Amino acid sequence: MRLLTGRDPSTGELTRAHWDADGVIVQIERLGTGGGEPWLAPGLIDLQVNGYRGHDVNAADVDAGTIASITSDLAATGVTSWVPTIITNSEDAILRALTAVATARRVDAVVAAAIPFAHVEGPFVSDQDGPRGVQDPAFIRPVDAAEVERWTKAGPVGYVTVSPHWPGSPEQIRAITALGVAVSIGHTHATTEQIRAAVDAGATLSTHLGNGIAATLPRHPNAIWTQLADDRLTCGLVGDGHHLPAETLTAMVRAKGPGRAFLVSDATELAGQAPGRYRTSVGGDVELSESGRLSYVGTELLAGAATDLAFNFGFVLGHTPLSMRACCELACATPGRIVQRLGGRRCGELVTGSLADLVLLDDRGRVLQVVQSGRVL
């Protein structure tokens, strides 16, 4: 039967979702107060994924098969929607990755439903060590709306991460948003004034706030405080316990308030792989620990993210005061609203008329069962 039953994280009420042969939810039954049943939630939505289980969105040989493989592997963990993230590179490389995303969506309806658009994280970011992270300085360049317009002809671009320190950034941001592409602030050494100008020009998101920034900052003002304080910005947060300490993430979520923060994995191709040492094309020799921390060999410096959103969901639930309801807001409802705002389908909600992307979760946030586009996985 095409149905799944569990407790609604918002109300605790025992709820049953029914869907039809097309995978569309046709009925939501409310069955009264729940007891010890699993939680029934929308599928998790990850708005920032660079790769997974050995597949890399940014690889030189990326193709539609790469994108389809990541889609399938993430779905098995409970992530039913995701956004391929393309990092700083040459324009040709960015176009190649976008073409792979577009092709994968065209030939596979499940992939098309799972991927609303792509995110280009750069190349318009800080060129300074620290805030640029592992972005290749050889390809970093000023914000250019004309280049973004060329990207949109190759594949669906939902948002682009920029550092608004570049001269003329507000004008370029206005031109980018006029294309229907959202602007996110990240990997930046911009001043408070430059960030405010970017938001005034139309920037609406912050990319993994608290990371992609200098290790040492003035107490105040600084780019973190400015973005936390501006209600026009909705902030992504890496919830793996390594990029942000639990108390930092908690404070950031509380500062932004309901609906203005969301969890991302920022996963790389090493996410989902066995612990050990690896050689990567970006960063060289790295070590993946049992806890999912990815660091440069012999140091405590992070070398990217290596856990998926389902892991992060469980970490945040277990290591912060945030409730199951709050965690579902961070990993389902808020990113779902962003997807819809940027032109994607309705997702992240338990409502009739939407695709049946569903997960059953235990009290620790572990995924027990997954339904993607009406298919029980």
Automatic annotation (TrEMBL):
Its EC number is 3.5.1.25. It comes from the Bacteria. GO terms for molecular function: N-acetylglucosamine-6-phosphate deacetylase activity. InterPro entries: GlcNAc_6-P_deAcase (IPR003764), Metal_Hydrolase (IPR032466). Keywords: Carbohydrate metabolism, Hydrolase, Metal-binding. Belongs to the metallo-dependent hydrolases superfamily. NagA family. This is N-acetylglucosamine-6-phosphate deacetylase. It comes from Brooklawnia cerclae.
